Amino acid sequence: MISSKTNEVVISSRIRLARNLQDFAFPARLTEEKAKQVLNKVADCIVALGGFKVYVMQKLDYYDSMVMQEKHLISNKLVENPSGAVLLNEDETVSIMVNEEDHIRAQCILEGLELEQAYRIISDIEDEITKNIDLAFDQNLGYLTACITNVGTGMRASCMMFLPGLTLSGNMTELVNYASSKGLTIRGAFGEGSNSEGYMYQISNATSLGLSEREIIGRVKEAVEQISAIELAEREKLAKNSPILIKDRVFRAWGLLTNAYTLSDKEFLKLIGDLKLGMYLNIIRLKTPQLVTKLTFQCMQHSMAKISGKHLTQEQIEVYRAEYVAHMLKSKRI
After folding, report:
1. 264 exposure class (CB count in 10 Å sphere: 0-12, 13-18, 19+)
2. pLDDT digits (tens, 9 = 90+) for 278-330
3. pTM exceeding the 0.85 threshold for the entire prediction
4. For the structural domain made of 6-233, what CATH number should be given?
5. Which terminal CB of the chain, N or C, has fewer other CB atoms within 10 Å?
6. Residue pair 27/146 in contact by the 8 Å Cβ criterion
């Protein structure tokens, strides 16, 4: 049974499978006509399951595609491919990218530490795909993929984690080394090359060859549970050893979030991370604690423009974000 405290550290769990169709070149070398054939094959199979809608990148509104990317439903590589598409279920827990780096990138994202459940959901969908589509598979290597790190199971198991304790105590370097020794990798919230804004990090398996899906999930889950325990201990140390500094950080964050005239992406994520830490340490209380996590993703740049319903400049987005956050938070404090 997962501790409720663990879910104060683990924001979400994701299982992603990379698959390619047999007898088709990888997406980077597909002709437009062949890419359409791939899309039609995959879409026909998935839509038949019910509850999925197809969004073709070439036809998708720019802001809609950027919001999907900010919500981790699609990748930048898919957005750049006019032959790409994504199939989303109604609650957006499952997204299936077609013609990204691989023909199929199917993922399930669930709140909290739910790697096994996410795997069950995406595995059931894969079973339906394999009934209708022949996938590229080698008896020795496993699933064949465009990137060598995905060869094997083709699976990436990852958790988004909120790690202010480890960050503020200066222990992230040690954590990265620990993860590497376990065959895992730690990245920023938006994947490879991104920064760890708002104390958010992704923990995932580094490779997929030589291990089964269950073994990969087991390794990632074990590491995430250990990291969660260390993170919770570091938070308690901060509260005990530096109570004034932590309280000052939390209340400064509250003051700026509810009174600032402009908020950049980077500043917002830092402040909302400090506020979230204060909530978990019972320094500050809100009527609806889940609002903070919701705001974290609502207030990304393109999501803000979409909510406003206007075409805004960068400066206007920062003003609108400050107004929106203040409006959402001011009446929520207990």
Report:
1. middle
2. 999 999 999 988 899 889 889 999 999 989 988 889 999 999 999 999 999 99
3. yes
4. 3.30.590.10
5. N
6. yes
